[in-house]
Every structure is written in structure tokens, then in C-alpha cells.
Amino acid sequence: MDNSYIDRRSFIKISGLMALGIASEVIIPHTSESVEPYKVSGTGLAMGTTVSMTLISASMEKAEEAMGLAYEEIDRLSGLMNRFDDGSPISRLNREGILKDAHPDIIEVISHAIKYYRLTGGAFDITIKPVIDLFKVKFSGVKYEFPSKEEIKEALSLLGSDKIEIKGRDISFTKPGMGISLDGIAKGYIVDCASKVLLSRGIENHLINAGGDIKAIGARGDGKLWTIAIQDPIKENNCLDVIQLSDAAVATSGNYENYFDREKMFHHIVNPKTGLSPIQNASASVIAPTAMEADALATSLLVMNLADGIRFIDSLPEREALVISRTNKVKRSSGWKSVIEM
Fold first, then answer.
1. What is the separation of C-alpha 239 from the centre of its chain, rounded to a whole number of angstroms?
2. Burial, 40: exposed, middle or buried (Cβ in 10 Å; 0-12, 13-18, 19+)?
3. Which runs of consecutive H residues, i.e. helices, occur in the chain?
4. Is the confidence at residue 322, as pLDDT, over 80?
5. Do 163 and 175 contact (CB within 8 A), yes or no?
6. b/e string for 47-61 if b means 16 or more Cβ within 10 A?
7. Residue 13: CB partners within 8 Å, gap ≥ 6?
8. Over 80: is that where the pLDDT of 14 sits?
9. CATH 1.10.3980.10-classified regions of the chain
10. Distance between CA 218 and CA 212 in Å, rounded?
11. Is residue 326 predicted with pLDDT exceeding 90?
12. Burial of 261 (0-12, 13-18, 19+ CB in 10 A)
């Protein structure tokens, strides 16, 4: 047999452990009669953030192969939805105003985005790109000037997910100059898809964390639920709360990263109604059945009034939220459950 030959299973395993920068960690059974499972952990870079996975499986080889496939899925979907890549379908849609024969994954994400736009009364809006682009231009280089009211008003006129048309597999904008950013929903969707890959390979207990978008399935190695710490956006390196999760997702959206200005007043999340960054809330975490929904709702809560946002979440079954204001006021939905265990 030619030693240079690598079959698909070996290639996937090597990709998961080496090419993606993954390091394995396992709990080795104490005896040959033990049924204690392996814990295989890995970390890689994708979607502009760190993506970590922890898999619990009776077979280390099975877990490693599944992890490699999950990272392949993340890379595939990231390529489809990256608006910064000129060759991606989303870039073509933004550039040309129409995308014919769109990939089913793109149609699904945009269709859900339109649903969340309606559900949140416009608080979640993927057509925010013209406003984001305006701030980037104004706060770049030597200019560094605040956009005028007229410029913001013109950018706001291009907003509204109800101006996106989906006909069959064709997606188009009803107004020239529109553009979309899937930053508030695509990462969650990709995490859900990676989780589905793991489930399809028989990994019924796993945790995926993609920069704060977390999907927890089953239980951890000791049989207990997955324990997750919620970051404090006000105090650096401080834990705001701890929750336990199983067969659900949690996502956190905050204003503590990606500022446009030196004063840290304008960041990557913008209120679609005003064209300005929300200043009342510092962070919002949402628990939902899917990471995609948790992602979208967390972004929405960041721009909503604190009390209104909590009431909104309380009106939705199987959804919970924790929101912290810029004055360090913490509000939790009625069903949010904290735990002491770290």
C-alpha cells in the first residue's frame, strides 16, 4: 500500500486535529470494563472568532472525525455568508441588488431574518449595512467626523427587511443602494448546522462555543448539564452570571467590542430606527431553542428599551434573557435560572 495515500476518514481526522489548530483532550477509562466516555475538546478560528467544541463520546476516533466534519461545515457556511469576501453570494447580492439561484442556506437565513424583523417590530434588521458603512467612512482615516443628520436620514431610507423580496430561489432588494449584514444571525445559524453535523455522526452530547454563541446538546462527561458563564460587559474578566443548559442555546450581544470611535459611543450594533448605536444597554444574553434565534433576539434586546425588552422575551415561550444596562442595572426574564456552580 502506498504510504502517501490518506483515506477520507484519516483526512478528516487530521484536518480536525492539526490543520484547524485543534488540540484533543480525553478522559481515558480507568479499566477495560469502564463505560466512562471520552471527552474530546478542540479550538479553531472561524467566522472571525474562536470556535471551541467539546464532544463526549464512547469512541475517540468517532468524536475526532465528527469534529473535523463540523469544522468543515463551519468553513463552508462562513464562505457563503461572508459579506467581506467580494466573491461570496452575500457580497454579490449587496453589489448587484439581486442574487439568482441563491443557495438554500442563504435563503433560510434571510427568511428567518425577515421573520425576526417582524417579530421584534423592526429592532432586528439585517438591512442595517448602509448605516454601518456610513459610520465606517466617517470614522476612518484622518476624517473622523460624525455623520450629518441628512446623511443618517438618507442611510435610514434604505433600511427595512420588508424591502427584501424572495421569489423561488431569487433574492432581491426593492430599492437601489440597499445592503445586508448577517452578523447578528449567521453565526448562530452556522453553530446550529455544526451541531446537526455532530448529531448526524452520533455525538449526542456536545458543546459548541463560537465567540459567545453557544449550543449545548445533552450533558457533559459527568452526566451533569453544561455549565456556562455569562460575561460581565462592564467589569473586564468578571462573570456576571452562571447558567446550566441542555438541548438549547445561549447567545450574548454586547457593545464592548468593535467600536468605530475613540470615545466608544458608536459600535457595530445600530438601532435601525435612529441610525445610532444604543446607549442604554451594554449587553444582552438570550436562551432559545436554536443558536440562530438566540443570536437574533440578543441583538434585538440590545437596541430595545430595557424593560420593554424583558417584557418582550417574557411573551415568548421557551425563551429567557438577561440584560445589563450601561449603568450596571441587571434585569432577568421571569424564567431565567442562575446556578452557583462554576
1. 20
2. buried
3. 8-14, 60-81, 89-96, 104-119, 129-138, 149-156, 186-200, 291-303, 306-314
4. yes
5. yes
6. beeebbbbbbbeebe
7. 61, 64, 65, 68
8. no
9. 89-173
10. 19
11. no
12. middle
Query: At CA 264, angle to CA 156 and CA 125, rounded to 5?
Result: 30
CATH topology for 225-342 is T-fold (3.10.520)
Top CATH class, 89-173: mainly alpha
Q: Where in the chain is the domain with CATH 3.10.520.10?
A: 225-342
Instruction: Kindly report the average pLDDT of the chain as a whole number.
Output: 86
Are the C-beta atoms of 71 and 44 separated by less than 8 Å? yes
**Residue in this structure with the C-alpha cell 482615516, named with its chain if needed:** 141
Answer whether residue 269 shows pLDDT above 80: yes
* Residue 77 scores a pLDDT above 60: yes
In this prediction, residue 120 has a pLDDT band, given cuts at 50, 70 and 90, of very high
How distant is the alpha carbon of residue 295 from its chain centre?
5
Contact 63, 55 (CB under 8 A): yes
Cβ contacts of 115 within 8 Å, gap of 6 or more: none
pLDDT tens, 273-314?
998 888 889 899 999 999 999 999 999 999 999 999 999 999
pTM here? 0.87
Q: With CA atoms as reference, report the closest residue to 28 among 17, 39, 42, 16.
A: 39
Residue 230, amino acid: I
What is the residue type of 73?
Answer: E
What are the DSSP calls for 115-149, one per residue? HHHHHTTTSS-GGGHHHHHHHHHHTSTTT--PPPH
| Cell 468517532 sits on residue | 62
